[in-house]
# Entry
Amino acid sequence: MTDRIPAGFHPFVIPFLVGMGFVLLYCLYGFIRIMCQLSHKDRRKFFLSFLNPKILWKDIKDIFLNCLIHVKLWKRNKLLGFMHSSIAFGWFMLIVLGHLEVICFLPGRLRTFYYPIFFNFFVAEDNATIGGQVFFFLMDFFLALVLCGIILAIIKRVHSLIFGMRRTTRLSLLDRVGLYSLWAIFPLRLLAEGFTAHISGGSFLTIPLNWIARAFLGNELNMVPTWWAYSIALCVFMCVLPFTRYMHIPAEMLLIPMRNAGLKIKHARKGYAKVMVYSCPSCGVCIDACPMSVKKANTRDTTVYLNRQIRRGNEKRIEEISDKCLLCGKCSELCQIGIEAPKIRIAQRARRKYGLNQNYSNISVGPLAEKAFGHNVEAKPGKVLYFAGCMTQLTPRISQAMESVLQKAGVEYSYMDKDGGLCCGRPMLMAGRPDQARQIIDKNTGIIRSSGCDTLLLSCPICYKIFKEKYHLEGIRVVHHSEFIKELVDQRRLSVRFGKDVIVYHDPCELGRGSGIYEQPRELLAALGTLVEAEKTGKESICCGGSLGSLTLGFAQREDLTKNALRNLTVNLPSKIATACPLCLASFSRYSDRPVEDIAEIVDQRSTKVD
Amino acid sequence: MAMNFGFKLCPSSALNLDKIDTSLYDKLVEMEPDARICMACGSCSATCTASQFSGMSVRKVLLDIQRGKEKEAAAMLRNCMLCGKCTMVCPRGINTRHLILSLCRIYDNKEEQK
Ligand code: SF4
Ligand code: SF4
Ligand code: SF4
Ligand code: SF4
# Structure
């Protein structure tokens, strides 16, 4: 392999260099800005994480598996996975191999930056390059791979359903420019390398193309213009990259080490959250996932558009989108990048200033505890404290069933909020008011501590999540009633009978995705009747529509959401819908054509005391 | 031409609604038009988590700010926990939880800063 052009330079590389320079400078600027936005502690944590070999290895592994191979997309849909990884991995290999070629054959040219990209233009094959054949083959192979990916991407724009997607993201103008220039890069590269293949050498793609081209055109006049076109396509792509969804390529490489370093979202628009937002490739998986999108008008309020509006800084839309979301967590559960959209939304809500701030200093713990537990409470191992929660007070059937079950099983318990108590604080937290929520948490902690119990039993998953995550209740076990009853049955403190009901179980957002409890309720129900599954279940279960997460969705707007969730639940014709959340129960009961019951109620109907 | 109804209004005991400052209510109605459709049924009062602490009730808050009694309303609002029970029971489908948030936003925060 020899230099064909002695100067080692041709003006067509200039557009590429401009584009490349721009992208690199922009990313450097972005990186410095993000680092400045991090708190001192987080910055330290981030840089120190690179010194930890375990985290460093995880960084490398995650970047390889997620950015190049897209493993999570493969799991979702094979074709979608193949499309993304063929483009990303193929392109990556073209760049790596380009560099290897330069290192092997013309190491002196490595400094030029553009040689690895335009290698075939600058070299001429000579007799001594048998080893080059391997490179030529690999280059053509990966180019073919990328081209396959591009063809699939074009098909996906028209027929997204084959890729398992009902709806795709509506692209913005610049996104389109980026998309079309990306699509243009690789066919142009193929042509350019094809036109020079008789000089620089080629393989199964480029050599036949070269024959055809020379047979029909008979001259080499189109060689240089095609290389120009290739370079310009690269330039256009890189110049628009920072303003399009393609910014996800550099952003995700920063997001992964930040996440592995253990950073948390502290501000909706700065630092970690900002990197997260830029890491979204607008794949659109979250559009179909979102329960709100059953109504077409709400499609624009899904996470992909939140990310876009945050990038654009459109304050009005950011607020609207942040307030509407149910915080059901499905989009982040399915997102391949792991964008924690509910947390970003809560952080956005937290930026709001209020003229009147809630304050609970007038509420004292002592009298409340006394009202619930009386004087002289004794701490006793195994004593259970039942906290029904606000929502259960609106659906007393659940707390009545719970009390009956506890009595049948002979569990010694106190009832914390029989005559009303405080809220758990989660609705306050979801409204983006952590300081107020903290006050409520502290009050409740005081009451719980003076109960002398070592198990806190909850009927509401909303309570369960916050008690698990934000309360400091060392030494006290926090348990949801579906787990607790299951244990009672397992320990034979309660005996249950199998019945003729065909039951479908609805996973409440806060219990399933929110707290990872999927199995216990199902195992319990399987002992009570025939269990069938919904169409979308488990991690993909659909929010009942009643969630307190949404601040702005009104009663009427929730109706379609609930009906859609019910339709999903009833595909296998259950005779009864079971759930484990008072809010789901209330929402579903409103529109359901068959009975909706809490798991505690069903147990209560079909259980007897063990003598 | 004065008409004789056979009785006269007694001015000293008439309630003068003109003297009330309703700017807060007007602002609220602008943000939350639904504030006007409350029929004062009291369902929200009956379910309120905070009522045992500050007498909170959306119905009373709305009534109070219509009468310019901002301080009294604020005292009640201060204990609301945004639990959302009032929204769930409101027969008029008012998003009371959002209404409360909007109201807290537009409250004059001079008092808070003290
Ligand atoms: S948020 Fe996640 S799922 Fe939604 S478009 Fe972005 S990457 Fe895809
Ligand atoms: S959290 Fe749920 S409601 Fe909110 S955007 Fe994600 S999927 Fe939609
Ligand atoms: S949201 Fe506030 S006003 Fe409504 S029921 Fe709960 S505590 Fe009462
Ligand atoms: S429940 Fe609704 S309609 Fe009834 S008083 Fe409260 S806000 Fe008004």
Chain A has four domains: 72-246, 264-354, 367-487, 496-609. The pocket of iron/sulfur cluster (ligand 4) is lined by residues B 38-44, 58-59, 89-92, 94, 96 (CB under 6 Å). Residues 72-246 of chain A form one domain. The first helix of chain A runs from residue 13 to 37.
